[in-house]
Write a sequence for this structure.
């Protein structure tokens, strides 16, 4: 049984072959992906560094900040129709 902290899917299981031929399971943290638009899936522009940067400057401060500019324009238009 793996350690309790490794019993989660937020930790990746990687099979590694040792020099003796035995295969063991190593655990690696999943790498965070690039923030993407919630509608079209394109990467959001301008958001590159996620750590050490204030929360306010990671995303746009406008409504529909989780969408790219093109999709948020469409969303705003649909809202006011
Ligand atoms: Zn989009």
């Amino acid at each position: 049984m793996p350690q309790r902290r490794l019993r989660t899917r937020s930790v990746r299981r990687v099979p590694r072959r040792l020099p003796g031929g035995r295969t063991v399971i190593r655990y690696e943290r999943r790498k965070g992906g690039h923030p993407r638009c919630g509608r079209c899936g394109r990467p959001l522009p301008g958001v590159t560094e996620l750590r050490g940067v204030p929360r306010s400057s990671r995303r746009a401060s406008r409504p529909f900040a989780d969408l790219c500019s093109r999709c948020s324009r469409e969303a705003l238009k649909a809202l006011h129709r």
